[in-house]
Amino acid sequence: MNASDLQKIIDWMVDGARSAATPTQMMTECCERLVQAGVPLWRVGVFVRTLHPDIFGRSFTWRPGTEVIVANADFDVQDSPQFKSSPLAILYATEDEVRYHLDDPASPNFPIFDDLRVEEVTDYIAIPLRYIEGPIHASSWTTKQAGGFTDEQVTALRKIVPALARYVEVISLRRTALTLLDTYVGNRAGERIMGGQIRRGHTETMNAAIWLSDLRGFTALSDRLPAETVVDILNHYFDCQVSAIRAHGGEVLKYMGDGLLAVFPIDEYVGDAQHVCSRVLEAARESRASVDALHYPYGEAVERFRFGVALHLGRILYGNIGGGNRLDFTCIGPAVNLAARLEKIAGRLHRTIVASSGFAGICAGGWADLGEFPIAGFSKAERVYGMEDETPAA
């Protein structure tokens, strides 16, 4: 192949592959350029391990004339027979290049090779993608050319891989940053931080429905159970809420021991407050059912759980608050304080779901008037509502 054509591809990737808007488009264009330059590629794969709580890694697979296929692998893949009996397992173990001629009877009988032979692949080479700080990822290259890749074509692939690794590393680092921000501060907050809202005092006001919940009897639970068991219980308990909150448009901002603070933004210009509050109430009903069904075997006993959630509506201050260079992206304001007070009232009344008059007044949901209550720190008493379908627990 022409050395200048290869260098153009390398320069294009080093410059950020600007003609490709997405990683999948970059992979398609890169492979097509290599084919045009004289490397007869058939199936190409890029395999990147990720820093994600649920996803071990991602694979990107290209074939001529088709869309790049993106797949996620969970953490169990490391122990799967398919991975253990694969050339990539060898690459990760040795951190070195792996190559096999598939028309050689002595080549290993890997399951992936059976599929490739059906496609009439003749040669397979896996080349490490080395990040700057040392982690190893992988690329695989195959051809249907008779006799496999030539020495010149293999040299071209080896030259292209460092530029590919730099591109993949940059994209991976950005994805990792977004994943970590999404995991630890929430999606909307993460977007704002990545967008440059990182200085103390960078805040904005937002109209939102506020969710503040608490696990009943958590102090006693923590006192009589081992810490590891308590953590496991909390994870199961939060699972009962977070999936419902996110499915109905909310964002979890903070965990506070057994407490959870979430917000459901309201676009006041669209006038969707009633719709948002209806979704919040539906999430609360789903969480109530999930927590009620939750049981945790411990020793000879089975732990059962109850929680309370306060729902309110109001304006909040949303942004960076903290001291020195340690900041927290959170929300504050009288509306958040009132929600916290309402959650305590829910506990005193042995109720699961309570709402302020502002929330209940805009969200038809079968509310029962529980009366007016003085609120610490507020000049006026607040009328509190509970669900008609709920019998207060003893």
TrEMBL record:
Residues 209-343 form the Guanylate cyclase domain. This is Adenylate cyclase. Gene3D superfamilies: Nucleotide cyclase. It comes from the Bacteria. InterPro entries: A/G_cyclase, Adenylyl/Guanylyl_Cyclase_3/4, Nucleotide_cyclase. It comes from Bradyrhizobium canariense. One of its GO terms (biological process) is cAMP biosynthetic process. GO terms for molecular function: adenylate cyclase activity.
